[in-house]
Amino acid sequence: MIKNTMHSLDDRIEEMDIKYKKIVGNLAANLAATTLKVKSRYFHRIGVSGKGYLQIYDSIKGLPEHKIFCPGKRYPIVIRHSNSLSADDDARIDARGAAIRILSDENELGSNSSLLDLTLKTGKAFYARTIADFATWLVCGLPAREEFVRRVPHVRDAVWMSLRNANSYAELHYYSNICRLFRFTDGQEMYVKFKLRPFDEGINEDSGKVEPIGILPPETGAIPRDDKDTRPLLFLAEDFQRRVGSAGGVRYIFQLQVRAVSNDEASRDIALDCTKPWDETEFPYIDVGEIIIDQNLTSEESERLEFNPYLRCHELDVIGATSCSQSASIDHGRSLIYEICQHLRNGEPLPEAWRIFIEQSDVKVDLSGCPMAAMLEKKDLGKVTLARTWYQTSWATFGQPLLQTVFPYFVMGLVIFAPLNWVLCLKESKKLSLHWLLPLVWVSSGIVAALACVVGKWILVGKKREGETVMIWSKGVFMDTVWQAIRTIVGDYFMEMTSGSIFFNLWLKLMGSNIELEQGAYVDSMGAALNPEMVEIERGGCVGKEALLFGHVYEGEGGKVKFGKIRIGEGGIIGSRAIAMPGVTVESGGNLSALSLAMKEEIVR
Question: Which of 72, 265, 272, 573 would give a disulfide with 327, using CB separation of 3.0 to 4.6 Å?
Fold first, then answer.
C-alpha cells in the first residue's frame, strides 16, 4: 500500500479496510450532499437547547476510581433536545434525542473547551449493528426492511422502542446505545454506556411508549399526529424552554452502565452490539451525578452547536474498527461523517484527507458552495449533457433498431451460405448422404461466424483503453451496440457451446483479452465477452457460468461511458452468476463467490 504524504492523514480513514472506506465514503458523500442542499443537519434537524452543569455525587457506589467521573467534580454542560426526523411538528410520533456536551472544568484547566460529546436517544437499542447494516437500512425500502426484521425480531423491537409520543422532552429516558471505553486510574478497562433519566423517579422508562401498529413504522420514520391533537407545532421546544426558565430548571440523573472487556474477540463484539441492550440485572445502571439545566439558549445559539462523537482522551476513548462487519464500525464511521457534515454546514474548508475521501466515493457531490472548492472549475449549468440532436434521436428511434436486428442476421446469412452451398453440391454429386453433411454445416459455419465476430469487433468497435471515455450518444457506442448484437447471435449459434474450452479462450484472446492460454485459465461465460479487451486472466484463473464482467459503466457525469479493466490473478475465481464492475481486481487466490457483486475498483481477496 502507498500513502500520499503530501497532506495530513486522518487515522480513522487509514485504519479502515477497502470495503469499510467505500461504505463510509458513500454515506458521507450522500449526507454531505443533503447537508449542502438544505444547509442543515440530516437527522435531528431542529432542536431546543439549554445550559447548566453536571454535579458528580460525592459518593459513587460500584464504580472504580476514574479521573473524569470522580466524586465531587462539577462540569459546565450544554444539552440539545430534538426529534430524529420530524422537523416541523413535535406531535408526530418519532424518536427523541438528547445531545450532551460536557465542558472542561474551568477552575482546573482555565478554559471552557469540550471534554466529551454524547449523543443519546430514546430506546435502549439501535436498529443497525454495523455501519454496513445502517447504510443498507437507509437505501432499502420498507418491504425490504420488514423482511429483514422478520428474520431478526429484536431489531423490530429496537425501532419501536425508540419511538415516543412525548409530552415533554424532560420526561423521557435517553440512552447512548453505543459503547465507549473507560480506563480507570488503576489501569482497569471497561466498556461503558450512558443514560439520562428524569430526576423524578415516578417517570418510568415507558413514558411516551408507542405500541406497534404494524411490522415497522411508515417509511418516513415518524407517524403523523392525531387529527384531534391541537397542540402547537413546536410545543416540546416551548415546554422545555418554559421548564428551564422556571425555578429550579430542568433536572436529570446522569447514569453509567459498565461491563468488563473480554479477552475473547467474539465476546467483545457481542458486548458492542448496539441492537441488543445489556442485561440490567447483570450490568445495573450506576447513578453518577445530577444535571441541572437553568439557562435557555437562543435558536441561533442552538443551531450553531456542534457535537463531535470522536472527542476522546485516554480515560474515555472511542472504540476503533477496521472492518464494516465489526460492531464498533458504526461509532467509528459516524464520527467521521458527523465532522464532514458539520464543516460543510458551517461553510468551513474541508481537510485535504476528507476532500479526497469524498471525491473517491461513488456519489458526486457539488462542493461549489464550499471554501474547499475554490480551485474547482465552474460547471456549465446551461448545458444538458444527455440532450440529443434531432438526427441522433431519429437514428436511435428508426435506424439503430433496424441495424442491430437486420444486419447481424444478414452477416449470419453470408456466413452460413458458403458451407451450406458446399454441402448441397456434395449431396447433388451423391458422394455423401445429407445426414452426414449437416453437422459439418453447423461446425464450419460456427467457426466462420466466430471469426466474423472477431473481424466485426475490430472494424466496428476497435480497441478500447482502460480509463477511456466515450459519449453515450456517440457513433462509437452505436457501433458497439451493433457488434454486441452480432456477438449475441454468434454465441447462441455456436460459441456458447465452446465455453469452458481452449477454443473459447482463444476466441476471447483474438478479440483482445489477455488470457494465459498455456496455463489453464477457465472461462465458462459469454458475459466475459462484453468488453473482451478489458479482461485479464492469469494462469489458473476461473470465470464461472453466466458470470458478467462489465468492462464499461455509464457514470452519468457528462453523459459518458467509461471503460475499466477486470483483472483475475493467479488462481482467482469469479463464481457463477457473479457480477464484476470496471476496475475490479480479484487477487491471486481470491474468490468472488457465486451470485455476488463487486463494485467499481473493489479488490477481492
Answer: 272
* Collapsed DSSP state (helix, strand, coil) of residue 444: helix
Over the Cα atoms of the chain, what is R_g?
A: 32
- The three three-digit cell numbers of residue 450, written as one number: 466466430
Q: What is the DSSP letter of 8?
A: -
Per-residue pLDDT of 422-466, as tens digits, reads: 777 777 776 666 667 778 888 888 899 899 999 989 999 888 888
Residue with cell 456458447: 496
**Dihedral over Cα of 418, 422, 427, 432: its sign:** negative
Residue matched to cell numbers 423517579: 201
Q: Give the pLDDT confidence score for residue 2 in this predicted structure.
A: 33
Is 166:157 a contact under the CB 8 Å cutoff? no
Q: Rounded CA gap, 450 and 504, in Å? A: 10
Copy the grid coordinates of residue 106. 474551568
Run of H or E residues at 574: strand 573-574
| Burial of residue 114 (number of CB atoms within 10 Å: 0-12, 13-18, 19+) | middle
Question: Around 101, how many Cα atoms within 13 Å sit in the side-chain half-sphere?
Answer: 16
The three-class DSSP label of residue 94 is strand
Q: Would you say 235 and 90 are in contact if contact means Cβ atoms under 8 Å apart? A: yes
The string of pLDDT tens digits covering residues 28-54 is 777 766 665 545 555 656 788 999 999
**What pTM was computed for the model?**
0.57
Determine the Cα–Cα distance for residues 503 and 494; give it in Å rounded to an integer: 11
User: Are 357 and 13 spatial neighbours (Cβ–Cβ below 8 Å)?
Assistant: yes
Query: How many other β-carbons are positioned within 10 Å of the β-carbon of residue 477?
Result: 15
**Whole-angstrom Cα distance, residue 553 to residue 564?**
8
The one-letter code for the residue type at 498 is: T
Distance CA 260, CA 256 (A): 13
C-alpha cell at 194: 450512558
